[in-house]
Each structure stands twice: as structure tokens, then as C-alpha cells.
Specification:
Blueprint: E1 3-4, E2 10-13, E3 18-25, E4 28-35, H1 36-42, H2 50-59, H3 61-71, E5 79-82
Parallel strand pairs: 4-5
Antiparallel strand pairs: 1-3, 2-3, 3-4
Length: 83
């Protein structure tokens, strides 16, 4: 199991109140969603609008990627939520 994050793209999903980002295990794309509550916990002074949440995500990217690596189990699942 070799999870990598070569793509720095991320997007805000207002309907799910999360920021989505993508990792790769060899050729498999894995979707990760980090709830805005997690981002707010990491950055309490961040606002709650899309630009503020994406900026907070970027500031805490390494911590969030560490959480994603810990959550990832391999296998057929291709979507994980960090809550």
C-alpha cells in the first residue's frame, strides 16, 4: 500500500460541508473528504466561507494528509471521510 498525494487540487463541497482532495495508490484514485469541523478545529480563527476554508486546508495540508494516510486501509474502498 503506497498512498501518494501528487495532485495539490482540492475543492469545497458546500452540500456536504467538506473539502475534497485526491490521493493515489499506484493507479487507483482515492477520494478524501475532510469535514469543515476538522478544518475549523485545526484553524479556529478561519472563517466558514469557501475561500477561508480552502486557505485553512492549505495551511494545514500536511496534518490533513497525515490523517488521510492513517485512515486509508487499501482494498476496494475508494472514498474516505475525515470527520
Amino acid at each position: 500500500m503506497s498512498l501518494n498525494f501528487p495532485n495539490s487540487s482540492r475543492s469545497y463541497d458546500s452540500s456536504r460541508r467538506c473539502v475534497n482532495f485526491w490521493g493515489y495508490d499506484n493507479t487507483r484514485e482515492i477520494v478524501f473528504a475532510v469535514n469543515t469541523s476538522v478544518i475549523s478545529h485545526l484553524s479556529p480563527s478561519a472563517g466558514s466561507d469557501e475561500p477561508a476554508l480552502l486557505a485553512a486546508f492549505d495551511r494545514h495540508r500536511e496534518q490533513i494528509l497525515t490523517l488521510a494516510r492513517g485512515l486509508y486501509a487499501g482494498g476496494p474502498q475508494n472514498r474516505y471521510t475525515i470527520a
